[in-house]
Design goal:
31% of the residues lie in helices and 26% in strands. The chain is α+β, with helices and mostly antiparallel strands. The strands form 4 sheets. Strands 9, 10, 11, 12, 13, 14, 15, 16 and 17 form a 9-stranded antiparallel β-sheet that branches. Strands 2-3-4-5-1-6-8-7 form an 8-stranded antiparallel β-sheet, with helices on one face.
């Protein structure tokens, strides 16, 4: 008999390892009821969980899911999904091979996999492959060769979220989840989860009593109401000997799971749910009211169609609301965002919090720490800060800090103890608000394009990527900014102007050919086009028209046709037109003229007699290249009015579905 690996730890490892795997049938059918993984017997789950070194305590079921409470956390089984969370020194990933064998027997195949965990409190006590994230990634790569790994967080090592994704989805999803990782809990709040050895308060029935008396049930009831559930909530809970508490709950296809490690020296509580709400703030507030952590972090994963998807610049919760909870919290570093997806986009975000008056903080962005939203301050913003003799560049999404800088004349005295003197502030919350207004006015069919040279802070770039922005790259410095911003390269187009970017810079991104678009001004030489095609064979091409309004349409189409033909001859793929304006896009007459010319060129491209059409060329987008005005709080209505005129003009000239995007 193989002996179980024993680990002596100074305290219990509360932070869980989480494995969530979505499957689809090999024959393409849909599953429901007791089909798919719900056909797997308890005995088979026992064998699988033995690999992870945990056991089943109890189970509840409804029409959608079976929820198993484990000796170390939880297992949720849907027809198409298996979600396992295990804490302590369990070996969750060792169960992966057997899970894949079960899937093969059920004639199901991988659709999407997420493995994630917070930082361990006692990492040196973990067993292989969990003794380092590198080993976990290496282990998973053996089974999922196209998987990708990320670390989100403040960079202080204690509040990082390690995420591994293997994406093979064939259709978009509306799934989302929120995880709350809570540390250093209020001893008074934890006392109700301390029972004593041999206490009568141990077991499942006592666990349900604790659910009510601790206020935990109120969290679940609130979330069910926010989710507009019609079915009854069912709860399974367990009080452990001598301390500790675990809970699973189901309502319709929504799951909840809570796990409490109450000992003072290693106190930790986790909360997770997949409630289909548009804003998690209300649920988070009730969680904090019950457990009262000194520190906590919130991690959210939302797929493309989810109510809280950040792909359209919608925040999944009010990142600043924690200041109002309990005695008040502030950010420990900024919220970090990550846009991912091989076939369909989804976003992950993490924000960590400490008490408002706590001196401890995550390492500030700009201090050289490797972060998802970047750690380097580059190009023009760096130059500006240098001219100001700023010792640090601080990116903030905290409105309170922003208001302090903007409203207080003696900023340096207020901020000197933390940041040094003076401070150059990059207001990420303003970027979010402006993008939200852009999306509100223009809708989803118009996407922004960003000149990295003029928006060269990597944190700003990361947020712009969430809005689906393309990025114009004109130098190696621009390229470094984008690549260090945490932007998933194949989710954003890099627009390389072949007359500005050196061949050496092009070669640096030759491995990113799937996301590079070559920008060819009309004056681009034939030799330059051939060299570009050598570095990026088959790359899409955008041809730039420098005088799109005043020139004769026939002359423009002849020039455009010649450039497109030359690109085709060297194996490139012409697919877009850029119309350069000499003035501002906000001028209504100017914008109307360029929109009319863009419409005329689109119509010309669709003509059956056009040789480009016969060669298979299709116009995928039209870029209107001109300055667009920014705004401050007093100018928002002016901005809205100007943008609304432009939006109506675009709708007038490009109303058809399936036409080129703008």
């Amino acid at each position: 008999m193989k002996m179980k690996e024993e680990v002596v730890s100074p305290g219990f490892e509360g932070p869980e390892k989480k494995l969530e795997v979505d499957f689809r049938t090999k024959h393409g059918g849909t599953l429901g009821g007791r089909e798919g993984f719900r056909r797997v017997t308890r005995g088979e789950w026992d064998i699988l969980l033995e690999k992870a070194q945990c056991t089943i305590v109890s189970v509840i079921s409804n029409a959608h899911c079976d929820a198993y409470l484990l000796s170390e956390s939880s297992l949720f089984v849907y027809p198409h999904k298996v979600l396992i969370k295990t804490c302590g020194t369990t070996t969750l990933l060792r169960a992966v091979p057997l899970l894949l064998d079960i899937a093969d027997r059920l004639e199901m195949q991988l659709d999407f996999l997420q493995y994630s965990r917070a930082s361990f409190k006692y990492p040196n006590k973990q067993l292989y492959p969990h003794n380092s994230f590198e080993n976990e990634v290496e282990f998973l790569d053996e089974y999922f060769p196209h998987g990708e790994s990320y670390v989100l967080g403040t960079g202080d090592g204690a509040t990082e979220w390690h995420v591994y994704i293997a994406d093979n989805a064939k259709s978009p999803s509306r799934e989302q989840s929120m995880e709350v990782f809570m540390f250093e809990l209020d001893p008074k709040a934890m006392k109700q989860f301390m029972f004593g050895t041999g206490s009568a308060r141990i077991g499942s029935e006592a666990g349900l009593d604790t659910t009510e008396s601790s206020g935990t049930k109120a969290i679940l009831d609130h979330a069910a109401r926010e989710s507009k559930c019609a079915e009854e909530l069912i709860v399974d809970a367990f009080n452990f000997d001598p301390c500790g508490f675990s809970l699973n709950a189901l309502v319709e296809d929504i799951y909840f799971t809570i796990h409490v490690t109450p000992e003072t020296h290693c106190s930790y509580v986790s909360f997770e749910c997949n409630a289909p709400v548009g804003d998690f703030t209300g649920i988070l507030g009730r969680v904090l009211d019950v457990f009262r952590p000194r520190k906590f972090a919130v991690g959210i994963l939302a797929e493309m169609g989810a109510p809280t998807s950040m792909l359209h610049v919608k925040n999944p919760l009010d990142w600043n609301a924690a200041a109002k909870f309990g005695s008040g919290y502030r950010h420990s570093g900024d919220a970090t965002f990550l846009r991912m997806g091989t076939h369909y986009d989804y976003c992950a975000s993490l924000c960590s919090y400490v008490p408002r008056n706590d001196k401890e903080t995550g390492k500030p962005v700009g201090s050289g720490q490797k972060l998802t939203t970047s750690s380097h301050c580059l190009s023009s913003l760096h130059d500006i800060a240098s001219r100001l003799n700023a010792k640090r560049i601080v990116r903030s999404s905290q409105e309170e800090l922003v208001r302090t800088v903007l409203d207080q004349r003696d900023d340096s005295m207020r901020l000197n103890p933390r940041h040094g003197k003076p401070v150059f502030l990059v207001d990420l919350s303003m970027v979010h608000r402006r993008l939200a207004l852009f999306t509100e006015v223009f809708g989803r069919n118009v996407s922004p394009r960003t000149s990295v040279e003029s928006s060269s802070d990597a944190g700003v770039v990361a947020i712009l990527a969430l809005a689906g922005s393309q990025f114009e790259v004109t130098s190696a410095m621009d390229l470094r900014t984008v690549l260090t911003s945490g932007v998933r390269t194949h989710c954003s187009d890099f627009i390389l102007d072949v007359t500005s970017v050196t061949a050496n810079t092009m070669k640096k991104v030759s491995n990113l050919s799937e996301c590079v678009v070559l920008r060819l001004p009309e004056s681009t030489s034939s030799e330059r086009i051939r060299k570009s095609a050598t570095i990026f064979p088959g790359a899409p091409v955008e041809v730039v028209l420098s005088d799109p309004i005043d020139g004769d349409l026939e002359d423009i189409t002849q020039s455009l046709s010649a450039t497109f033909q030359e690109a085709l001859e060297v194996g490139l793929r012409p697919c877009a037109i850029a119309l350069e304006l000499s003035g501002s896009c906000a001028h209504p007459d100017m914008f109307r003229k360029v929109a009319a010319r863009a419409h005329a060129l689109s119509a010309w491209m669709r003509r059956a007699s056009n040789p480009l059409r016969k060669a298979g060329v299709r116009l995928e987008w039209i870029h209107i290249d001109g300055d667009y005005p920014g705004f401050d709080a007093q100018e928002e209505e002016t901005y809205r009015a100007a943008a609304s005129v432009a939006a109506r003009t675009i709708t007038e000239y490009f109303p058809e579905v399936g036409g080129p995007r703008v």
